[in-house]
Amino acid sequence: MADPTDQPDHRDRNDVLTLAGADAARFATDRFVVLPLGSIEYHGPHAPLGTDATLALGFARELAERSPCLVLPPITYAFTPQITSARPGTLSVAPDVFLAYLTEVLRATVRAGATRVLALNGHSENQFAARLAAEAIVLEHPEASVAVVNWWRLVDPDAPLPFTEAGGNGHGGPLEISTTAAFDARGVGVAAAPDIAYEAPWWRGAAQVVGRGGRPIGFEGYHGRIGEVSAAAGREVIDAVVPNLLRFVDGWLERAASDDG
Asked: Percentage of the chain surpassing pLDDT 90?
């Protein structure tokens, strides 16, 4: 049997799943640790159930290639909203249970030595629990800094991406699923889903409706111009997001260090 230490080094050298126990001090010595946040959620017949986890982990690995850090395994089981929780294949965790679990994961990460933790989010609903969990941890550990970032918010609205409706946005839409395909095309099948016009009320940025009246018009567990999904378009999204992600991380770490002083 070949000695595994003879295998070439590659990008998973930064993944905690494959980190040697002898190197566990990296929790304290690396610039930061990344916790990808995903879900198991229906994104349409054309998309994998693990879309959000694939996106969060994919961007975490892209980041680690350019700004060395440790990448934790993604959190894949999460709370999913009422409009998708009854869809086939969605595995939703009660919100209080998810918040408690996420808080414990962050607590354990800080206890392992990390004082800079980036929660890199691929599932919209996670951002609310992540903010609350971060607040709880920093109250316990004032030396810590926890940043929560939603990858899709780092897409420059002026970026020349190849989507014709609403920048490709929409749950299970071409922005999200093209990017998923660029990271891992397994489970992506464009022919399986018709286009559904993207609908976002004018008040969406200021208010949220849960229950009746909260579902976008035409929503069938996804919406958007699915015919525009492609791995090539997804690579364009990645290339547009990663520089902004790097800029955010550098600014965050600089500000956290200045507070230390």
From this structure: 91
- What percent of the chain is modeled with pLDDT above 70? 95
Position 2 in a domain: no
Q: In the chain, what is the straight-line distance between the N-terminal and C-terminal CA atoms, in Å? A: 52
100 CB-contact burial (10 Å; exposed 0-12 / middle 13-18 / buried 19+): middle
- pLDDT confidence of residue 13: 82
Strand order in the sheet with 116-121: 70-71, 33-37, 116-121, 145-150
Q: Is the pLDDT of residue 205 over 90?
A: no
Q: Could you tell me if residue 18 is inside a domain?
A: no
The count of other CB atoms within 10 Å of the CB of residue 85 is: 13
Task: Please provide residue 198's backbone torsions phi and psi, each rounded to the nearest 5 degrees.
Answer: -75, 135
Q: With beta carbons less than 8 A apart as the criterion, state whether 235 and 185 touch.
A: no
pTM passes above 0.70: yes
Closest CA to 40 of 52, 29, 32: 52
What are the φ/ψ torsions at residue 147 (nearest 5 degrees)? Answer: -105, 135
Q: How many CA atoms lie within 13 A of 201 on its CB side?
A: 11
| Residue 142 phi, psi (nearest 5) | -60, -20
Range of the domain at 45: 27-260
Residue 54: which of 155, 123, 101, 119 has the closest Cα?
123
For residue 8, being part of any structural domain is answered with no
| Phi and psi, residue 129, nearest 5° | -65, -40
pLDDT in tens, 244-254: 999 999 999 99
CB of 228 closer than 8 Å to CB of 168: yes
- Predicted pLDDT of residue 261: 64
